[in-house]
Each structure stands twice: as C-alpha cells, then as structure tokens.
Recover the amino acids of this structure.
C-alpha cells in the first residue's frame, strides 16, 4: 500500500504535470492564433493560382510533346 509520504510526492508530481499541460495548451493556442494571423486564405489565393497555372502549363507541354512524337511518327 502507498504511504502518505509517497502519496504526497505523487500528488506534487501530478500537480506539476497539470501545470505543465495547461502551460502547453496556452502555448499551442497562442501559436494557432499567430498562424491564423500570418497566413490567411485571401493571401494564399494568388500563390495557389500561380502554382496551379505553372502546373497546368507544364502538364500541357508534356502532353503536347507526347502527341507531337506520336503524330510525327
């Protein structure tokens, strides 16, 4: 059975762990708010359009090159 001293030590450890968890939760919440402020969807839209445009251009070029090879042969 657990003695009173051991129980008190365990209780102190649990309390310290609880405080650490609460502190970590506050830090995570703070980081989430900073991320939301840093990159909004409106700011990301132009980057998305450029990336999709470049990917489409590359894909079209590859398809056209393959078709050109097939048609020429």
């Amino acid at each position: 059975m657990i003695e009173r001293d051991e129980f008190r030590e365990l209780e102190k450890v649990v309390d310290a762990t609880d405080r650490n968890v609460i502190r970590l939760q506050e830090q995570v919440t703070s980081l989430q708010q900073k991320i939301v402020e840093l990159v909004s969807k409106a700011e990301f839209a132009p980057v998305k359009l450029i990336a999709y445009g470049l990917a489409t251009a590359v894909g079209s070029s590859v398809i056209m090159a393959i078709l050109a090879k097939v048609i020429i042969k």
Q: What stands out?
A: The chain has two helices and no strands. Helices lie at 4-38, 41-72. The radius of gyration is 29 Å. Residues 39-73 form one domain.
